[in-house]
Amino acid sequence: MPETVRKTFVSLLVAGSILAGTSHYCAAADEPDAALIQRGEYLATAGDCVACHTRPGGKPFAGGLKIATPMGDIVSTNITPDPDHGIGAYTEEDFEKSVRHGVRKDGSYLYPAMPYVSYSGLTDGDVKALYAWFMHAVKPVAETPTETSLSFPANVRTAMAGWNMLANHNPPETGDSATFEKMRRGRYLANALEHCGTCHTPRNFILSEKQDQYLAGGPLDGWYAPNITSSKTSGIGDWSEDDLVQYLQTGAVPGRSQAAGPMGEAVEHSTSHLTDADLHALAAYILQVAPQEEEPGQKPRDSFGQATAQPDIRSGDLTRIDDVTELKGGAVYDANCAACHGYDGAGASNRYVPSLFSNSVVGASRPDNLIMTVLYGVNRTAGKTHAFMPGFDGHSDVQRLSDAEVADVVNYVMAQYGNGNPHVTADQVKTFHKK
Amino acid sequence: MLRMSRRDVLLAGMGAAVASVTAQAAEPQPAVSSDVTEAAQFLTLSLRLTDRETLSPAIGSALYARIVQAVPERKAQISQLYTLMRQSHFESAQELAIAAEKADPAFKDVIHDIMTGWYRGVADQKVVVYRSALMFDITKDAVYPKTYATGGPFYWTSKPPEVPLPTGAPGLSPSKFVVEPT
Amino acid sequence: MSSEQPLSADVVIVGSGVAGSSIANELARAGISVIVLEAGPRVDRQHFVENFRNLENKPSYQGPFPAVPWARHPPNQMTPNEYLHTTGPDAEAYQQVYLRMMGGTTWHWAGCAWRYLPSDFELRSRYGQGRDWALKYEDLEPFYYQAEVMMGVCGPDPAKEDLGSPRKQPYPMDALPISYAAQQFRKLIAEKTPWRVVHEPQARNTRPYDNRPTCEGHNNCMPICPIGAMYNGSYSVYHAEAAGARFVPNAVVYKIERDDANKRVTAVHYFDPDKGSHRVTGKYFVIAAHCIETAKLLLVSADDKSPDGVANSSGHVGRNMMDHTGVQVTFISGDKALWPGRGPLETNVIDNFRDGDWRSERGAYLVHMVDDNQVDLATSLAISKGYVGKELEEQIRYLASHTVRLFSHNEGLADPDNRLTLSKTNKDILGIPHPEVYYKLPEYTVKSCDHTRGLFKELIGLMHGRDEQWTPGYFPQDHPAGSTIMGVDPKDSVVDGHCRTHDHENLFIASSSVFSSVGTGNITLTVAALALRVADTLKKELNHA
């Protein structure tokens, strides 16, 4: 490629990303080639670094996001190439130690909210590409997020050294990851980059992922990352590879499931940007993961319910404008949900709004994700599609439901369209409030 | 909508006679069965007047209760209209309506009440059903009941179905059309 | 009642509709202390949605909102009315409806968010009619944009469809795609007439915006959007509260207290529903209580110092009542099925009669082809024609798919004789008099309506229409304006170009009541823009002090 053309290509590439106009930060002398930077960008997207290293409304990779853990909130750090506030002073070796081994430049250990036990599986070549991209294409941001302050013993960073020793590390891959055959590429994407297990694998008493229950599901900041093993009843073994590709690309498979909360973010920032080949590799790998059964005789989460067909026999009575008494489950549904999800639960005819039957969130045995969805809604952009449902918590502009109303409508929806009434109480809903 | 099958309808149509005999045989509470009988008669009458094979018995009972509550003489009138229907064979709602108005002009108001009930979902100027009113059933290929639109954003840009000019005649004499003030 | 903490703030706002709540939000976000006193209650969307479904008379926009006794609003547009009493030769044409509750009347508007034309502010100097405003379009332009961003307004690309009001920025959201029915109407007008149909700018989401969803075409903007895709004042109340403003519901202000010199307002007094009286002090006061209630409050506050009412040295409080009077016709199109009622209610407008030299003779107007679901009306009509059974169903389908409704907004004109006064005979449970309005349509408006009827007849012909039903007489469009008119001369106006009362230096009015002319579009966006300009003035003065 002639030099001028390549330069144009690079600047177009950069301008097209969220990091527009950053090329002048690159030191001309040691500028790596554009292909390496481009590869690094793709890897950073696949690794979804931005998800944790950017706070809501903040600058990309400047950190500051609070991540709730059983030990307390961990605040993500600035990983822009700013020398004082970010990782600008990191050498490639320093970078490699953090990403693959959880050791900072100053020698202290990172908190395991950073999924370095997953990233440890990265190939040398991919670490190099990531480093090149972070140092040369990310815009430096001169701000330091607040320090993480945890309770004992986790507040002693050296204690993390012990954790680091005990935790299960992903063994590093070798060779050129771009040339891996499909299943190996899929495993590499799932483990070394997308770090699916960080959320979907339950953790043991030291909060290390239980490898014998790989992808069997785990709680996450109010949400529940479900069992995505190949179990036909407890997992997603009834999904086809194309289903899973569609889910990762768009965030929704009508009649099966849709992504909200952290998975919505993962789709938005990461999986929707993967190539078709990578998505198929990732899907194929996930769908052959050893099945983990939950309960015998269980039905798949997306197999419950059907359209309901009750006539809407009414009182014909009106209430005065100051009547803001709580409604009961069916009435909460009719007044707040039926407009979009249909009085019959079938959703929109063009699938813009999902049906509530044949829906993994409603058919799950745990009500967690339905409660979170009712409280905080859905806000997910994949490609040109912006899926949005307003939340109905105490800050909603659309309708502020009480905890009792949220509990009631969750019970109603799961009884009508899901796996039976979970008997959620108002007090339980309260525990899902964001702090 | 919960609909009766054609067989259920025939059963209900034959009536109520069968149902009430059975009810009496089973349990000695004739008061209950008389309401059941009236509602079943109302439903049978409604099937003829709507030219339909199925209607929701639950809606029928709710409409009947409202209609006779608003105008007590409707009870006897509906029963008489039912008898009139039973006395001859009417092929259509239109035939029955023509015969009814001829027999007694008061039947016109009764039939208006029944039509307003099923099609608008309104009786005694109160909403008995909203989205389940038949007017929405017969237009569901084109429009949604307000507040229950589930076509997704911008569904409205698509071309709705064409509707031919109707050729059928009315069964009743026309009335003054009054638009309610807003 | 006196045991509580005295209420006091930098700025005390009366009314929580679009005007009051947007000022509250702006000021609170700037760190200024704010109290909002709302006569009506805090409310909930879900109950209104259910009320609508339980309402028999679905076209009644007030229907789902049964008022509280301490802050009544007109129950309907009927004359005589239980609350707003209208008299005069055109009493029926001024039977306005509005809502007294958190968020105000924007709970049931159609979201039409027009900027006025530059000429609307200069009616007297350009056309020799009515009055000029004490501000120009350019003064308001930045606030129009601020209001559009606040509400979330969608509209056409000015390069493709210039609506006549110069813009410095594009609309915050892309125009709403119009329905099949509106597309056919637009095509017909383009092909068969010299006029055009434009995309109406609307405070309605064409994408997720401000944590509210995209419009899904429930066709129920009036009386209640079931999903919050359309802006209403309650969002600004919520945002103001989140920014620290204090919202006090069920606080019916009945007195505006001034200092000895009668130059500054010192407090407002309100009744709670049990008629307990409370005094609220502040540095600045904004009355943002709707055109009718604002004038009523100023008049009710009459005392020895101001025997004709507060801010009323000119005698113009309550005068110059204007509206967009409507002409309406419904007919059956002889062309192909249109199926109105798919999508939002008001999306398309013939805007050729907004401005022209003829405005020296007759008022301007907008024409809407209302995209209203006609199934219920078709059913009532077909039943009244005597249809039953299969034939009834055919009729309903035909009428519902071929019914066309046209209506207009015809420009009123300031006339001091059209006047709001306090009822001498009717009082509410707190002892506050009901409002009474004398109304005679200005000749200017009558001529405009006559012109509209001619246009409608032509359109009915073009659509091979039959069975036309004209709404008798003239009907109100619920755009009351003028009751505290703006002007440069304190002798014949109530507020200046910044909506500050001529009489009291710390008293502002944010309402369509300040309009000097009623303009050529729906009033709400201009109300919001004027309110945001008031907020800007207050921010500057408070920060300077």
UniProtKB/TrEMBL annotation, chain A:
Its EC number is 1.1.99.3. PROSITE patterns: CYTC. It is found in: Cell membrane. Heme c 3 binds at C337, C340, H341. InterPro entries: Cyt_c-like_dom, Cyt_c-like_dom_sf, Cytochrome_c-type_DH, Membr-bd_ADH_cyt_c. Residues 35-138, 181-290, 324-417 form the Cytochrome c domain. Binds 3 heme c groups covalently per subunit. Its cofactor is heme c. Keywords: Cell membrane, Heme, Iron, Membrane, Metal-binding, Oxidoreductase, Repeat, Signal. Heme c 1 binds at C49, C52, H53. This is Sorbitol dehydrogenase.
UniProtKB/TrEMBL annotation, chain C:
Keywords: FAD, Flavoprotein, Oxidoreductase. Its cofactor is FAD. Residues 10-44 form the FAD dependent oxidoreductase domain. Gene3D superfamilies: FAD/NAD(P)-binding domain. GO terms for molecular function: flavin adenine dinucleotide binding; oxidoreductase activity, acting on CH-OH group of donors. Residues 239-325 form the Glucose-methanol-choline oxidoreductase N-terminal domain. Residues 477-531 form the Glucose-methanol-choline oxidoreductase C-terminal domain. It comes from the Bacteria. Belongs to the GMC oxidoreductase family. This is Choline dehydrogenase. It comes from Acetobacter senegalensis.
